[in-house]
Amino acid sequence: MADVFAAGGSSSLDNVLYKNEVTILGIGNVILRDEGFGVRVAEYLDKHYVFPDTVQIVDGGTLGIELTQYVTGTEKLLVIDSINGGAEPGTTFRFHNDDVMEHFQDKLSAHEVGIQDVLGLLTVTGHKIPEVVVIGAQPYDVEAGVELSAGMMKLMPQMVEQALQELKRWGIEPQRRDRVEDMDYNTVAEDFSAVR
Asked: Which stretches of the chain drop beneath a pLDDT of 70?
C-alpha cells in the first residue's frame, strides 16, 4: 500500500489512489468469528448489489492508518463493524458524525483505534469527511474461528437493510443482482478485493 506521506514529509492526501464520493468500509477480524461481522456485511453488499461508479466498497479488515488512502476525499463514509458497546449480544448501534469519534475514544480493538486515527488525521490535515456513519452490532462470540455465530448470522439481513437505508438517505439506491452465488462465511477471504 502507498504511504500516506510522500518523501520529504509533504502530504500525499490530495493524491490518493482511491477517491470516490461514497465509501462503504467493512472492518473487523474475520478469524475471530463475530469480530469479522463488518467485513461479512460488506462482502454481502458487494456480491448481491450493483453500485454506481461513485461508490466503492472496501474490505478494511484490521488495517489501521493504511485505510487513509481509501477514504481520503470521500464525501460520505459508511463504516460497518462489530461493535463492543457493552450491551447485550445482538444489540445494534448507529453513530453519526461527532458521535463516531466519541464512540471510538474508549475502544481498544486495533481496527477501531485505526479508524479513530484515520478520521483524526483527515480532520487535522483539512480533509475531514463531511458525513460519517458507523453501524454495527454487539458480538456474541469473538473466539478464534472464521464462521459467524448463529446470532450474528440472523442479524445479517437487518444490518444489510440498515446499510441500504443509510445509502438511500445519501441518494444511492443500488440494484440487486439478478444472479448471486451462495456466499461461504466460513472462509478467511472471499473473492473480494480490497477495493471494488
From this structure: 1-19, 103-114, 184-196
CB atoms within 10 A of CB 2: 13
Contact 37, 185 (CB under 8 A): no
CB 81 within 8 A of CB 38: yes
Environment class of 65 (CB within 10 Å of its CB; exposed 0-12, middle 13-18, buried 19+): middle
DSSP states of the chain: ---SB-GGG-B-GGG-S---SEEEEEES-TTBGGGGHHHHHHHHHHHHEE--TTEEEEEEET--GGGHHHHTT-SEEEEEEE---SS-TT-EEEEETHHHHHHHTT--SHHHHHHHHHHHHHHHTT---SEEEEEEE--S--SSBSSPPHHHHHHHHHHHHHHHHHHHHTT--PEEPSS-PPP-TTSS--S--SB-
**CA dist., res. 165 & res. 161, Å (int):** 6
Q: What is the CA radius of gyration of the chain?
A: 16
Half-sphere exposure in the Cβ direction for 136 (13 Å, CA): 32
Q: What is the pLDDT of residues 166-179, one digit of tens each?
A: 999 999 999 999 88
CA atoms within 13 A on the CB side of 141: 13
